[in-house]
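Figure 2 data, in text form.
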Amino acid sequence: MKRFWLIFSQAVTVCLAAYFVLATLQPGWVQQLNRLAVPPLSQSFSLGSLATPWNTPAPSPLPPSPQPAAPGSLSAAAKAAAPAVVSVNTHETLAGRTLRPALPGLQGLFGPFIEEAPREQNGLGSGVIVAASGLIVTNNHVIAGADQIKITLSDGRQAPAKLIGADPETDLAVLQIPLKDLPAVQFSDTETMQVGDVVLAIGNPFGVGQTVTSGIVSALGRNQLGLNTFENFIQTDAAINPGNSGGALVDVYGRLLGINSAIYSRSGGNMGIGFAIPVSTVKQVLNGILKDGHVVRGWIGIEPRDASDMGSDNPQGVLVGGVLVDAPAAKAGLKAGDLILQVNQHPVRRAADLLIQVAALTPGQAVPFLVSHDGKLREISITPKQRPTRDAAP
């Protein structure tokens, strides 16, 4: 009897030792053995549950649930606007030139003149799809003089572009590509825009590929920069670099606020001062080009000057520096030295304001102007004509 008890106790000791070794080295095996030995109360015991774990295929992992954007993330705005921003590549063939030899003695060797062969020049910029039918808005300086224009979409597709029309006075141009059902950007309302609003700039800087940068609206109504005839720029510190021209400036909802146009830089790169053409101007130019092939603007034929720059006691209003003979302003009785205070009941404070408001007038329709002459207020009616183009302007 003692012999059997000794054998039994030794067997139990070996089993316990083996159990503790397995529990230490392979805890997963012990858990599987426990589940096999004592099935859960909620399950019925069956032979199928005896299948060894290494012969049972592991279940496929569940796909990760979509994570919400991190607090403060602008990813939603970028996703909404980025598909509508394209890359614009241009090709221009420059005509050869006839040059005189630098040294008179070379004329006998090469003839009296030297012929320079035609040269090729490529350009790079950005653009924004504004209609699903393939209409694209970009800067005029991006495509000016180009023989060929090629558009690359954000998804990699490419297509040749046709120039529908351009407006050098605002530096905007309208293109079209032969593709349909394209992702078009939504327009925002710049009337509600304020300094300090967060914005994104989207474009193709330096040709590295579509890039999104962020910043704020630094200033509104920037003008007198000498860039365009009509200037009403949005200033931003969002990084804008060469290649971003024609790209999109969007709000936190991905809606278009403006077309990135220029930067202030001493090095050629971003210095935190960039300028975008507001969407209100974009709409005006786009509608004008699609309707008439060009932008129709009002013109009254005066030389405006800021009252503050002329040492006026009243800094409000715009001084008339001169009036063209037979121009609409001259026919209405406006004279040099008059102070224009309102155009169609809208106040004007600077020459740039007057230029923009007059340009928005419909040629042939009389408009009231509130004018101060020798300190006396009077209202005169001026019927604007169509503004001559830049090349045709006197």
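Caption note: The chain has eight helices and 23 strands.
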